[in-house]
Amino acid sequence: MVRNLFFAALALALLAGIGYANQSTSRKVVIPVTRTSATNGKQMYVNYCAPCHGVDGRGQGPVAAALKKQPADLALLSKNNGGKFPSTHVMTVLQFGADNPSHGTADMPVWGPVLSGMDATGAEANVKALRISNLSRYLQSLQSK
């Protein structure tokens, strides 16, 4: 009886171990980031945002499928805001991140580390503000008519 119980427990432990080992791990998508000019909103968008949001801003970037939730359609920001581009909101999201479960954290997966690595005081603060402003202006140019 004890021997049967031992073998049953051993078999259960073996099955549990196999089940644990077979669990699929979440894929981590690594997007290579190259530093871009702070004055070129389009270049920043293509390098930092388009992998998820797509070149046209519609949320169909090449890594979008790897995210838990579909990226936002950035071309509809004005339409979803009564026809006015929500520049203050966009700049706030770029600076502080968004509460979006697809990201896992408030930071944008690529953009967040670029900005968070910049000093909030001195010359880097000006470059950070310039980056955010120029990227926001480029997003405004992507809006659906």
Q: Care to describe what's here?
A:
With about 140 residues, the protein is mostly helical. It has one domain: Cytochrome Bc1 Complex, Chain D, domain 2 (Orthogonal Bundle), CATH 1.10.760. Helix content is about 45%, strand content about 0%. It has five helices and no strands.
Write the layout of secondary structure elements.
Elements: H1 2-21, H2 41-53, H3 87-96, H4 111-116, H5 123-141
Shape: globular
CATH T-level fold name: Cytochrome Bc1 Complex, Chain D, domain 2
User: Could you list the spans in which at least 5 consecutive residues all have pLDDT below 50?
Assistant: 5-25
Q: For the report, how would you describe the main beta sheet?
A: none
Quickly name the level 1 CATH class.
Mainly Alpha
Mean pLDDT reading: 75
Helix content estimate: 40-55%
Count of individual domains: 1
Q: Which features does this protein show?
A:
single chain; 145 residues; mainly alpha; Cytochrome Bc1 Complex, Chain D, domain 2
Quick summary:
The protein has helices spanning 2-21, 41-53, 87-96, 111-116, 123-141. It has 145 residues and is mainly α.
